[in-house]
Amino acid sequence: MDGTLIFCKDGILRFRSHYDDVTAIPLLAIQDSLQEDDHSFLLQYFRHNVVIEDGTTLSHVFLAIEPWAKTLGIYLDMDVMAYIDEIRKPSQAEPLFDWIGIQKVTSIHHAYQHQEMRPGESFTAHFNRERIPTRRFDIEVACTANGYKHGDKESYSISGDIHTIKNVPIIFSDRQVLASYGFEKNNLVDAHYPGVFVNNKIRYIQGTVVFLLYEIVDAIFKDGLFYISPQVATYNLEIIKKITEKLESEDVDNQRMMDEQDSESRQKNQDDKKITMEMAEGAFDPMIEHMQAELKNWLYIKSLCDSNSELPIRIGNVIEAKVPDYRFLNFIIDDSD
Q1: CB burial string 133-158: b at 16+ within 10 A, e below
Q2: What's residue 237's pLDDT?
Q3: CA–CA separation, 225 vs 230, rounded Å?
Q4: What is the C-alpha separation between 180 and 186, in angstroms, rounded?
Q5: Each residue of 148-172: pLDDT tens digit?
């Protein structure tokens, strides 16, 4: 069905048809009314747009996906149910962040020839050796989940103790960032072109974006939580603490890892061209037929859920969560720049 999935603050995942902007029906109620197999049902919605209601926390999201935890666990290769069980446990832990932000970032890196280490060459000399550029670029698209604090420009990992983040509101950023990285001699993006931002030697542009269901679960579990289960996360945290204490006791605090990438680019400005189109008679008939069939199907499903579902159906507008400010890397985006 054509429509949008909504994570709601009552811990229920609902579906709203494109042909009905006031009714949001629990997805589980739709599944029950159609009597479909739970393993394949959610897959039909993996590429549906997703929004999140204002005030929805990470715990609410976990509870919303619980009916399909097994399916998601197979897809993610993670113990999704273990995370859901863990957030149900009582805890006095204070929230670490003011909100968890989901963001989509496309990055462009100039590809360089791979160079083998020479006999007797140190790692420092190997990595500082002048690189040979190719005619290719590494283009990566990632959906990330990070923790943020009001007034703090840094972004933080949410991987660790689940109890410190389970009650933190989660928000999907409606902006996608495309960032160009490279040395200053590269001119992939023109810094003087309107809409191009420059910060920390990184040049980037922004555009609106919507998230699909599979992107949301990938961002939360694979990028954000990272570990296969909360138990594994706790174990790894303890190991990291022991290593840190040992390093501090031996005064070995001079090991730093730098991962800085410069960027500079150039893009040719093309003149706007007017486009003229001629529509053949009946060109939109298939689309109209599809819309009519979808509307009929939606009315049928809504009637089934109205009479059979025990889960609450939402009537009226859902207030979508909005990010307090837009972030990228370790700075807050200022649109006035």
Answers
A1: eeeebeeeeebbbbbbeeeeeebeeb
A2: 76
A3: 8
A4: 10
A5: 999 899 999 999 899 999 999 999 9
